[in-house]
Structure formats: structure tokens, C-alpha cells
Amino acid sequence: MTSGEPGTSQFTEGEEEVPISLNEYIEAETQLEEDAxxxxxxxxxxxxxxxxxxxxxxxxxxxVTCSTEKGEAxxxxxxxxxxxxxxxxxxxxxxxNFRCDCGxxxxxxxxxxxxxxxxVNTDNKYNQNFTGVYCVCHRPYPDPESEDDREMIQCCVCxxxxxxxxxxxxxxxAPADYEEMICVTCxxxxxxxxxxxxxxxxxxxxxxxxxxxxxxxxxEHDCKNVKQETSDDAATDTKPxxxxxxxxxxxxxxxVNSQSIKQEPEAKLCPYLKTHKGSMYTPRTxxxxxxWRTKLCTCSQCVQLYREKDIEFLLDPEDPNHVYEEANVExxxxxxxxxxxxxxxxxxxxxxxQVELIAGYNDMKENLVEYLRKFGSNKxxxxxxxxxxxxxxxxxxxxxxxxxxxxx
Length: 408
Hints:
With 408 residues, the chain is an alpha+beta fold. Helices cover 26% and strands 8% of the residues.
């Protein structure tokens, strides 16, 4: 299971514990902490995100307990902790341009954190992940009926997750070095992406190949005949449709509604919107190299196409998941991981205090593991639950430290 993959399961009933070394345990816990910081770093655990409108990107959950026939719904981190405490939840990783649904018409109960929400969030977009299934196989993750825990990769366009063996690849292996993936279904819907050529796509590598070094350059055919405009300019343009004009070779426009794409009089069709023949133009899963989005054509025709297909987010430098995660990590407190902070504090103690502290830590860990087992694999653990654990642990220690009332 890779960073950011959907679904979590900390304890499974009846599962045998596999012994690991202390270093392995610390590394695993540190990685989990870093992953959580990357995904949840910008999320507010106390206040519903609804007031922020359609958030550019945020961590989302869907509540199985509260699901109704009124359609899919997504809730923010704060609502998952405060309004849906004790419920069965699916973790959805992050989604773009989404407004928290908690308490609207899709739920039987109101949001506890924020009143007065709209009946429905009309601009929210939902996929099958909101029902707990992923990929073209429409299975949950992890899949209780499968012993093959294959890697899952998220498509940066539809935001669904796919098993690497369900991406219609020539081999059973994804490239060794890529920044984002676009699934074959999305490529079929947005076939103009194939016109950018190999400079945008990472090559498939074998495990023995060296790391791929790719520098993204402008593709072979540049859009020189079409005026570069902002999206606002394209929106107000009212000139004849592109399909009313053919290029020198008579190549027709594909993927575009001729009534919505406009251009300057007598200008040629943007090369990135033409149809082409050949194996390199056959729809396939694309593994995109770093900074590929910055090289997308922004002429008036292409910008209008992105708007028509509702994929303008491809031009937003803050949209990619890796940008979101990097910003969260960068903005996190600079005190290091909890392990690093703990080791720093431990080194300042004398030997006797260190031994006592380590013994106390081992006792706490055993009690905490036992306490967490009652939550199962789907229930979200609240801050109040952890506080309850430490209160109980403190009371137990107080009882053990109370001297007898009399000595005999």
C-alpha cells in the first residue's frame, strides 16, 4: 500500500502479529506520521470546511452509517470527527473543488458544527469512490476477497484509483519515474492529450534500468497560428467556430464542440486539437513527467476546450496532489517527527530517568494497543478517545502509587 492510497486498517480481528524490530517499527510509524501530515496538514479538525466554499483540495470521507438513497456525499475531517463519531467511514484521500455535504439534504441529521447549509452542493463531483469501490474492477480497498494486495495509482483527471494491472499497460509494470497518471478511460475522453507526444510521457522502465531523467520541452508542433489568450479573453470571444475552417492538410478537429471553440479570423486550427493516425495516437494510460501541465497550450481554442470538458484545473499550478502534500509538509511545525522530539527529550535525562521512562512507555504501548482494538478497522478515533485512554491510565497509576492506610 503506497502513500495516499484509499482505505486504512490498523487492527484486524484474528490477524497474527508479525514480529518486527524496533527500527522497523519506528520507520513505519514515522512514515505514517509523515503521510498523515501530508494529507491532513491543511485540514481543520474543529471547524467544518463548508464556510470556505468549494475548497481547492481537501481530505474527504464518506459515511457508510449515514448513507441514504439520496446519492453520494462527502464530509470534511472536522465533520468526520464531530458529527459522525462512531460511524463506519471510508477515507477518500483528497478530492478537488469540493464543499462539505454534512447535514445537507443527503443526510437525515444536521451538521453539528455549522448550521444554515445549502440543500445541495451543486458543483460537487462524485465518483464510485464515494460508495467505497475503486478501479474498473469496482472492488473495495483493501479487498477482503483478494490475497493480492496490488499497488493502486490515482488518475489525476477523474481522481479514481486503479490497480496497476487494470490500466491496459503493455507490461504489468508502471514506469519507474513519473509525476502523475491519466487513466486510459480519461485519455479516450480527452484524446487531444496524445498530440503532445513523447516529451510529456515517461517511458516504461525495467527494474534494472537507471532512473529516468526527463526534461519537458515544448512538443514538436507549436501553436504559432493561434493567438495566445487568457481564459477571460476566450470566454468573451464571439468569432466563427473552429470547424468552419480547415487546415492545410484538411485534418479535422476532434474532441471539440464547434459551437463553443472560437478563434481569430483566418487563423489555422491549433495543432494540439487535430486528429492524427498512428500507434502513438492510440488511447492508452499515460504516465506524465514532471511539470507537464506547465507546457499545455493556452491559446483561446485550447482554453475553451478545457472549459468545455471541465478540465480547467489542469492549468492550475496548485491542483496536483503532490503540490498539495508538499505545501502541507512545508507548512508543518519544524520540530521534526514525534519520534525525533521524543529522542531529543530522552537524551536530556539521566540514566535512571531514561530507564524509568522507557519502562513506562512500554507499559503505555501495551495498554494503548489493547484499547485501540475495540475500534475495529473502520471507526475513526477521536481526540476525546485518546484523552479518555490517558485519563484511565493516569487513574490506574494513581491507585498503584497510593500508600496503604496502615502498616502492620
